[in-house]
Amino acid sequence: MLDENPKLGNSAKEICLRIFFPIIFPAVVLFNFIDKHFFAEYFAKRRLDKRESRFASEIRERVPCLFIDFGAQRVPNIEPTPLVFDFAVVTLKVDTMLIRFVRGRMDLEVDVAPAGKPGAWRESSTVAKHSDFSVNADRKVDYYGLKDFGQFFRSNFDVLRYEISRTDWRASTGWLVPFG
């Protein structure tokens, strides 16, 4: 009977949400207020550390070639991570480059930067696509998740290393020129 009408299956969830939301929402707001003002965001930072540890484990599990073939090592994040939603940042050092995995709201972005310029992040697939150094024209230039990133990184390692070693490397925000 529930399979025939999808609205019936959602109605119990909707009823519970309407009953408990007025109770739970103020409690969460109060807890976050107390954490921020009395505990210096101790609990939020703890949740962030747990998210980042889980994310690092997931990277190690789904992209083992970074650690086995390229000797990646986790390094501390250079920039502070926002304490919001499911946001997590993990930075790895491979050869002379830093690789920053950023996940938030189920989106994944992988940025690269030279080890000597840790704030000059650029998105890795954009760097691979726009590089004039090409080892193989048929190489994979996009990734669609962590499982896919290993193959992308293997096929573009030389390209990324070449681009990072260039002296004119700069962050992508440095290219924006105000007009007006």
Low-confidence stretches: none
CA-based gyration radius: 21 Å
Number of strands: 5
Strand order of the largest sheet: 1-2-3-4-5
Tell the overall outline. Answer: elongated
Q: N-to-C SSE series?
A: HHHEEEEEHH
Distance between the termini: 63 Å
Q: Helix amount, in percent?
A: 40-55%
Q: Give the averaged pLDDT, no decimals.
A: 83
Total domain modules = 2
Structural class: alpha+beta
Largest sheet: 5 strands, antiparallel
Chain-wise SSE layout:
Elements: H1 6-38, H2 42-62, H3 64-68, E1 73-75, E2 88-94, E3 97-104, E4 107-114, E5 122-123, H4 124-129, H5 146-165
Antiparallel strand pairs: 1-2, 2-3, 3-4, 4-5
Task: Give a verbal description of the structure.
The chain is α+β, with helices and mostly antiparallel strands and 180 residues long. It has helices at residues 6-38, 42-62, 64-68, 124-129, 146-165, and strands at residues 73-75, 88-94, 97-104, 107-114, 122-123. It folds into 2 domains: 6-40; 50-171, no CATH class. 47% of the residues lie in helices and 16% in strands. A 5-stranded antiparallel beta sheet has the order 1-2-3-4-5. The termini are far apart.
